[in-house]
UniProtKB/TrEMBL annotation:
Species in which this protein is naturally found: Streptomyces lannensis
InterPro entries, per the entry: OxRdtase_Mopterin-bd_dom, OxRdtase_Mopterin-bd_sf
Recorded superkingdom: Bacteria
Protein name: Oxidoreductase molybdopterin-binding domain-containing protein
Residue ranges, annotated region (Disordered): 1-28
């Protein structure tokens, strides 16, 4: 999963997933094992702190090491989990990174990292919430408001959505145009006050503060203005298109700010 994957309730069985991208060998993990850990993740919504400690202790054993490599798949109340839907992801840096803005716009553009750094930067601090149960409180993100790039491109009045593509070659996401123009949606260059690292989706990722973290697509490479929302990678496999924290999967009302 590119970002953090939604829980499995009432969803079709996904295609064969791969291991998190921070595994040294990049080898795939079987579907049954991964789905089992994600099932534990759903339990983590209810009992994350205690259950997490017990599961990690079980997998890690007395030595504190995890020979299975599976603790990286478990929900964690104090840290991130890193996923990819591909076996490997190319690395990008100042020499070869480009972010394109195109589609239903008057002025298509291509941005280097230097271009993005030169634009006004916004810093946000919010909790990160994954629907599988883990949460990282008060996490700083910093970058360019997506609305800034959309305004610079000149959005067609008949457009209604924005589609995001990633340089892993597989992951996609979408937002309505109103959602994309929110002040708490960033094209993020920094995370936890450091440049976004490769495993976190760097050098540039999307950050959608009010939604579950799978909406914050990693390894962002393309922003395309479209007429209507197109479901993203996991949403094509049955997950929520609108993933407001608290509302998605039958929870409370969506935020309005």
């Amino acid at each position: 999963m590119n970002s953090e994957r939604p829980e499995e309730r009432d969803a079709p069985e996904p295609a064969e997933p791969t291991a998190p991208d921070d595994r040294a060998d990049g080898s795939p993990i079987g579907r049954r094992v991964l789905l089992g850990t994600l099932g534990l993740g759903a339990l983590g919504v209810v009992a994350a702190p205690t259950l997490q400690r017990g599961l990690e202790a079980f997998l890690g054993g007395v030595s504190g090491k995890d020979p299975t490599g599976l603790t990286g798949l478990l929900p964690n109340g104090g840290g991130f989990r890193y996923y990819s839907v591909t076996a490997s992801v190319p690395r990008k840096d100042d020499t070869n990174y480009r972010l394109t803005v195109d589609g239903m716009v008057d002025r298509p553009a291509s941005y280097t990292l230097a271009d993005l750094r030169a634009l006004p930067q916004t810093r946000l601090v919010h909790d990160i919430q994954c629907v599988t149960g883990w949460r990282v409180p008060k996490t700083p993100f910093e970058g360019v408001r997506l609305s800034t790039l959309l305004d610079a491109a000149g959005v067609d009045p008949s457009a209604g959505a924005v589609r995001f593509t990633c340089f892993d070659g597989a992951y996609t996401e979408s937002l309505t145009l109103d959602q994309a123009r929110r002040s708490d949606v960033l094209v993020a260059l920094k995370m936890q006050d450091k440049p976004v690292g490769h495993n976190h989706g760097g050098p540039v990722r999307l950050y959608v503060a009010p939604m579950y973290f799978y909406k914050s697509a990693k390894w962002l490479s393309g922003i395309t203005v479209t007429r209507a929302v197109r479901p993203g990678y996991w949403e094509e496999r049955g997950y929520d298109v609108d993933a407001w924290v608290g509302r998605s999967n039958g929870r409370d009302d969506a935020p309005t700010g």
